[in-house]
Structure to design on (138 residues):
């Protein structure tokens, strides 16, 4: 299903932007992605982004402007946030600020995923998912 087709099935509880060296810039270069993100924001709904995507898409489209976000800790990527002056970069693995949840990169996929589950379904469900993922055995 294309993004254009998927968009017709919204609104969405959450829009999640994956990262990646190629993927994040491609998302940021899509006007349609920008429209979907602005629809999420105008509906006061959740947006999650990981790795390079917070620095690319959230800043470019000024989604939840003024919020704290994190991103992959590479100077050239972090500088995108500083230069945009749209958000404040926080040096943490997972950052939640209002309806935006961001994570630094691959090591934090579980953390951001559980943050989304917690936000959408509550602490009890997040703990249940964590247990089924055997995180208590780490």
């Amino acid at each position: 299903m294309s993004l254009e087709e998927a968009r017709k099935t919204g609104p969405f509880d959450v829009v999640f932007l994956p990262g990646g060296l190629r993927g994040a810039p491609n998302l940021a270069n899509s006007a349609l992605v920008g429209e979907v993100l602005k629809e999420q924001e105008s509906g006061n709904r959740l947006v999650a982004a990981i790795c390079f995507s917070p620095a690319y898409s959230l800043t470019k489209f000024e989604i939840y402007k003024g919020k704290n976000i994190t991103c992959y800790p590479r100077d050239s990527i972090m500088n995108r946030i500083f230069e945009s002056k749209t958000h404040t970069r926080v040096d943490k693995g997972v950052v939640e600020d209002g309806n935006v949840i961001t994570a630094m990169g691959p090591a934090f996929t579980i953390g951001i995923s559980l943050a989304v589950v917690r936000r959408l379904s509550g602490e009890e469900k997040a703990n249940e998912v964590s247990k089924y993922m055997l995180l208590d055995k780490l």
Remarks:
- DSSP finds seven helices and six strands in the chain.
- Residues 109-121 form the longest helix (13 residues).
- The first strand starts at residue 14 and ends at 17.
- The chain has one domain: 3-137.
